[in-house]
Amino acid sequence: MEITVEAIVFLVFSAITLGGALQVVLTRNLFHAALYLMLSLFGVAGLFVLLTAPFLAGAQVVIYIGAITILIIFAIMLTPQVTRVLKVHHTQWPVALALAALLFVGLVWTQTPLADELGADGWSADFTVEDPADVPADSLTDLGKSLVDPERYMLPFEAASLLLMAALIGAVLLVNRPDDNPDAEAAPAAGARPDQSG
Amino acid sequence: MDINWFDADYLPWLILFFPLLSFGIIVLFTAHSRILSQVVAMTGVCVAWLLSMIEFIKVVWASDAELGKEVFGSTVDWMTLGVSTFKMGVLVDPLTAYMLLMVPLACLAIFVYSLGYMRGDPHNSRFFGYISLFAGAMLTLVLADNLLMLFIGWEVMGLCSYLLIGFWSHKKSAYQAGVKAFMTTRVGDVLMLAGVGYLFLETRTLSFRDILYDEAVLEKLVNTPSVLFGGSAAALIGVLLVMGTIGKSSQFPLHAWLPDAMEGPTPVSAMIHAATMVSAGVYMVVRMFPLLSAGADFHNGDFSTPMIIMGLVGGFTALFAAVLAVGQNDIKRILAYSTISQLGYMVAALGVGAWVAAAFHLVNHAFFKALLFMCSGVVIHSMEHGEQHAAEHGHDPAPHAEPDGLVMDYVAPPNDVLRMGGLFRKLPITAITMAIGGLSLAGFPLITAGFWSKDEIISEAWHGTTEGYPLALFVLLVLATAALLTAFYTARMWFLTFWGKPRTAAAEHAGEGSQVSWRNLWARLRRRPAKATDPGEQLTALQMEIPLLVLAFLAIFAGFIGVHTDFPLLGDLDNPLHEFLSGTLIEHPPVIDFDWLPVLVSVALALGGLAVGFVLYGIRPLAKAQVDPTERALGPGIWQALQNRFYIDMLIRRYVLRPAEHVARKIVIEDIDKDTIDGVLESVAEGFIWLGEAFKRFNTVVIDGVGDGIPRAIGDFGSWFRQVQTGRIQQYLLVVTLALLIIGALFLIQVG
Amino acid sequence: MVPLWMYLVVAAGLFCIGLFGVLTRRNAIAILMSIELMLNAVNINLVAFWRYQTPDKIGGQVFAAFVFVVAAAEAVVGLALILAIYRRRRTVIAEDVDMLKW
Asked: Does the structure show a pLDDT above 80 at A167?
């Protein structure tokens, strides 16, 4: 593979995505973790652009970065945070690390031509496509139409909207307290346990 | 789409729809109003009954000769899973039609009865919601055209049974009984589900028509070796399905829940635990009979494995439960054991291939047993009034305080037959209808429904015996003995309840101000207001009595449709049932030759049992503080054993439940240090130590030659295994990840 | 363009990082964030396969859009649950919420 501009951009976005993700998982301060999550999701949006899916990239920015991450930050602010954290990770982290690494190795082994290069035949699927067909010009129109076409994705689309509605109502019900006492929120922050965060 | 809902193909959908709709309406809208809920529930079940009558008539008129080949029904796709599709559909063939004659009518009768029985209960709407759901589920089960839908109805009924047994959940014994029933039937249900799954795996369909009426499919199943235990796939599936029946129809060894289920309100006992749900277990094996008997030529003495199991289990249960019924003093428990015993009759009948007889007895039994339960409800109801009166006036109060939880030999005072006596005068209609139900149960010759169906079962077993089949001989012997005992305990129950003089103050004042005494009945006939009865109570009495009369009528006349054609005089009725039901099977079961001997034997047994009962309890009725003659005859040891149900429940509790609980508690205390348990690894290591210890203990106990070892090992295994449940979500996820990796690796190895 | 497998490797990496986070972070909100990472890995795969294998059919993008919807619903409900649990138990540590045990 020659070094093209596209490849460099790809590498940059991948690095942003993965680096941000690592920080999300590793950093002590939860608020910083949320900011790194934004960064990582931004990297994913970049990858979408590279994959000629500009609409999804936009949606990614608006929905994920604009809404979900902000929601998470709200939640972080509503629960007690102490920056000096004693323990960020569960004690089972070595096992988890081993399993995650094993999964990664397994995925790489089966998805890249690596196994073939090393001479172990028949392991990897053929994912070496480099020059796929062009995306039709009206692909965005098609996406919009397919979502409201009864013959295609209208039913799942409606189901998804129902799901969102249900989630909305459910969240309101879960968090709503009939005897809402504004002082109740402030009290726990003061008496929060020192090791609560991570 | 243009559907004519009155077409016999589509009507069944509506039958099952209306009770379910009532349930929905009650739960969502009318739960706050008792009256509205009752109206909604009654409407639902009435419509269901009317529609099923229409359906029945349509089916019978539409085709008389070829019914069974051309069944009614319709099917829709429910869920498409890759290459196969689950379907939902209804089916009305002769067997279903026969059940449609019974189920909605029994439900309707019991609904009306509940109006009276549950009057004044604060949770009336909840009750009517549950029983509507139950009626809908039962109709779903009966009308289903495939095993999956049948299973859905089956499980919903299990849920309703749990909810209704524990309906008075403020009583510890009630909710414990509910849990016991639910857990015990679960054992059978899981095995049955395994059978259904295996059947689907082998045939790619669960439709009755596709499996049971296709010789090729059955043959394929017979010739496929099964995955476990050797034998054919058909045999394994059959055995698993029979396990479901053993749980649902309360057969040995999963019988322990039914007597405790009597903690529920009496209409529930009548509907769920006598007429419908427990019969559903038998209905399922009746329905699946072609599969259960596949590959076996049982007319010539070659019985398939599921049939042998049914014969042995059913026969044993019939006798075992009849023996236990003799030793009970709780009127509802007598009936509960009697139900178990009669269900054993049906299962055993199927075991020897008496298909028509089993279905016949199923329906007859539902009528007379529902009747008996409802009568017992009236008795208990009036005894409660009596106890209340006795307590108020200070004489002869209830002997002991109610225990906390389920106790084997505790009998609630209003249910205790020894505390009754002389109720005939107080409850004439109940006494007479109960006598009719009892005679039908005992198989009183010629005039009762129970006689004809029981006789048919015994005749078939006799027929098998004369051909020299050992299974038929076994079934014949146990059923004959059980028939004798049945007649005896029925007579004992009736005479103790209604005959002689009141043995307690409670019995003396039973039904005061509530039920219909001779005097009030007379007053009612003359359209005068009854003495000391307010109009609400009178309505109650009426609502409880009308269903009794209807069912009493059926307990007599439902039998005449199945009289053998060679029977003198009554044979002229032409035995329409046999011809009708036979249409359900591809191969019509032959009518066995009429033989006087078994008929005379069953007549002798029924009369003999009744006569013994009459001699012991009827000629000289039991007086106050006198010892029960049966108890005297059996001696205290056996009597105690009977009252404690042969200690089976106690053994299970002592050797399975209690060790598990004990060990578990110890672990919880020792394991307070959370951080020491580090993920699954340590749990597994610890688990192996526990397993080792469990095995060690197991060995010692086996060497000791005591059978306690197995339950204890199971208990220990459960205790260490439950440690995996740390409640910490991330440990669970870790295990999930591990499993994902293992599955992925296996997949790769297979592909690569 | 870069070969397909490179996208897959990035997605696999993102997924495994997210998985690690889910398995080890103690704070429930952090677990939720890690789940978002895993969902994004799935989305990269969906879009990449769409682009390289069936660019003329829109299914891949549609499914990615559905993943957005599900992710949003999951975040909303998840956070509401965390807040509800916090109010009752005064903790956001996943391990401390172990009423399900035994």
From this structure: yes
Please say which residue of B145, B164, B194 terminates a domain: B145
Answer yes or no: do C55 and A131 touch at CB < 8 A.
no
CATH, residue C81: 1.10.287.3510
Residue B482 lies in a domain: no
Chain A contact set for C88 (CB, 8 A): none
Q: Examine the pLDDT at A180 and tell me if it is beyond 60.
A: no
Closest partner CB to C76 (pick from A104, A160, A171): A171
Residues of B within 8 A of C99 (CB-CB) are: 727
Task: Give pLDDT, residue B656.
Answer: 66
Find the domain containing C36 and state its range.
Answer: 4-92
Q: What is the dihedral of CA A43, A47, A50, A53, to 10 degrees?
A: -110
How far is residue B478's CA from residue B495's CA, in Å, rounded to a whole number? 26
SS (H, E, C) B351-382: HCCCHHHHHHHHHHHHHHHHHHHHHHHHHHHH
| pLDDT exceeds cutoff 90 at A112 | no
Q: Which chains touch C (3 or more CB pairs under 8 A)?
A: A, B
Domain-embedded: residue C101: no
DSSP conformation class of B634: H
Is C99 a domain residue? no
Segments forming the whole domain that contains residue B64: 1-145
Q: Among B96-110, B250-264, B519-533, B680-694, which stretch is predicted with the lowest mean pLDDT?
A: B519-533
Is C20 inside a domain boundary?
A: yes
> Which helix (DSSP H) or strand (DSSP E) does residue B72 occupy?
strand B72-81
Query: Would residue B525 count as lying in a domain?
Result: no
B138 pLDDT tier (thresholds 50, 70, 90): very high
Instruction: Please write the tens of the pLDDT for every residue from B477-529.
Output: 898 889 988 998 898 888 888 887 887 777 777 665 444 444 455 555 555 44
Q: Is residue C21, in this structure, part of any structural domain at all? A: yes
Residue from A155, A181, A196 to probe the interface with C (highest C Cβ count within 10 Å): A196
- In B309-438, beta strands by DSSP E: none
Last residue of some domain: B87, B115, B145?
B145
Buried b (16+ CB within 10 A) or exposed e, A47-75: bbebbbbeebbebbbebbbeebbebbbeb
- pLDDT given for residue A179 in this prediction: 58
Number of domains in chain C: 1
ipTM of the complex: 0.90
pLDDT average, residue stretch B203-218: 83
Instruction: Please tell me whether residue B705 adopts helix, strand or coil conformation.
Output: coil
Answer whether residue B33 is part of any domain.
yes
